[in-house]
């Protein structure tokens, strides 16, 4: 019998299994605005997909390290908290880390709508089936979908399909990168990709090593993530990657999160308590960082960022004392300044889903906030 990638129903010991060969895709510009499965089949009811001239395998090697282009200039992501506190360069890889229900989908929709890119490729790995249309119609909207390709495998899909959703999204992004486009690749989530790999590895007889994850999972993660980034030397296209990590129980040191954080070029932490306090996107700017910030900020911007971090950090340290009345105003000028300015900085970080922005605008707003009330 021939076994497809949808499941193993009907398979028994002694059955003949036929290998259909490696999966390939033929993406092209006609895929923009469409939703496809990992096999390149449309699932949006929009009719047949056009086929590109060249077949592209799901698995590919990243550009050779010695001949790979360097990161490009900084990119406007359109989210003030990220533009100011985790400034991103073109071709960089960032990881939003969050537990479920903290606003990852809303953050992705803001990036897809407002980020400065030519094409957005969105990989939804293990997504809830009912949420696909909600994400496309409500969060992404016509403006975001028009320049996007969405690759989706829902949570009830076979683990091979969920794994291949991540690989297919990367292959589509590589197609547009090689065509000279500035690609923003958003994958939600790397954790579900790792869970699919765990199912496959355990089914193949691998021993569970770290919290139930077999060793092959941690070998596969860099093979996927290293494919994002700048193209080969001379290629004007790039893949700026945002790979969300679903942390279980807000444990940011669990194995997948720890491994991914070591591969990426920075991380953005979404905190449930910030969201519960009513500030969205719920980015914890003190725990977020971009490893490329020193190379993409001007000296005045670095000074603004350093001062904002000091103010927010001091305010966080003294919040309980102020709340309990244990601190008396005038005892420490730095604390007085933090108590006065931290709420104004928080207002800058608060942003509606429809709002866009730039890095320069984010720093201008920060500088105005730290100048104090008019």
UniProtKB/TrEMBL annotation:
Catalyzed reaction equations: ATP + H2O + cellular proteinSide 1 = ADP + phosphate + cellular proteinSide 2
Matching SMART domains: AAA
Region feature Disordered, mapped onto this chain: 43-67
Main location: cytoplasm
Domain AAA+ ATPase: 90-275
A Pfam family this chain is assigned to: T3SS_ATPase_C
Alphabetical keyword list: ATP-binding, Cytoplasm, Nucleotide-binding, Protein transport, Translocase, Transport
An example Gene Ontology CC term for this record: cytoplasm
Localization of this protein: Cytoplasm
Start-end of Low complexity biased regions: 50-66
One GO term (biological process): protein secretion by the type III secretion system
GO molecular function, a single term: proton-transporting ATP synthase activity, rotational mechanism
PANTHER family: ATP SYNTHASE, SPI-1 TYPE 3 SECRETION SYSTEM ATPASE
Protein name as catalogued: Flagellum-specific ATP synthase
Organism, scientific name: Muricoccus roseus
């Amino acid at each position: 019998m021939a076994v497809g990638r949808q499941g193993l129903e009907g398979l028994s010991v002694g059955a003949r299994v036929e290998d259909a060969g490696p999966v390939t895709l033929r993406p092209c510009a006609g895929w923009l605005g469409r939703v496809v499965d990992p096999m390149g089949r449309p699932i949006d009811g929009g009719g047949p997909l056009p086929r590109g001239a060249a077949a592209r395998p799901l698995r590919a090697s990243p550009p050779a390290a010695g001949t790979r282009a360097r990161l490009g200039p900084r990119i406007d992501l359109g989210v003030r908290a990220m533009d100011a506190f985790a400034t991103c360069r073109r071709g960089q890889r960032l990881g939003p880390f969050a537990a479920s229900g903290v606003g990852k989908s809303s953050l992705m929709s803001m990036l897809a709508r407002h980020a400065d890119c030519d094409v957005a490729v969105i990989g939804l790995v293990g997504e809830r089936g009912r949420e696909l249309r909600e994400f496309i119609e409500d969060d992404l909207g016509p403006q975001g979908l028009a320049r996007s390709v969405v690759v989706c495998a829902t949570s009830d899909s076979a683990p091979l399909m969920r794994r291949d959703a991540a690989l297919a999204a990367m292959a589509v992004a590589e197609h547009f990168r090689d065509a000279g486009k500035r690609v923003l690749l958003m994958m939600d989530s790397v954790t579900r990709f790792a869970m699919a790999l765990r199912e496959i590895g355990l089914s193949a007889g691998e021993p569970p090593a770290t919290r139930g994850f077999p060793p092959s999972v941690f070998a596969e993660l860099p093979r996927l993530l290293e494919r994002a980034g700048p193209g080969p030397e001379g290629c004007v296209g790039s893949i700026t990657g945002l790979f969300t990590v679903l942390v279980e129980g807000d444990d940011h040191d669990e194995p997948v999160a720890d491994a991914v954080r070591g591969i990426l070029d920075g991380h953005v932490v979404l905190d449930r308590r910030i969201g519960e306090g009513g500030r969205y996107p719920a980015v914890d700017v003190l725990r977020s960082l971009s490893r490329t910030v020193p190379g993409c900020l001007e000296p005045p911007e670095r000074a603004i960022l350093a001062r904002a971090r000091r103010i927010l950090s001091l305010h966080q340290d003294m919040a309980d004392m102020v709340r309990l009345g244990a601190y008396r105003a005038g005892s420490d000028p730095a604390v007085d300044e933090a108590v006065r300015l931290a709420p104004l900085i928080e207002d800058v970080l608060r942003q509606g889903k429809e709002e866009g922005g730039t890095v320069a605008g984010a720093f201008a707003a920060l500088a105005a906030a730290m100048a104090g009330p008019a």
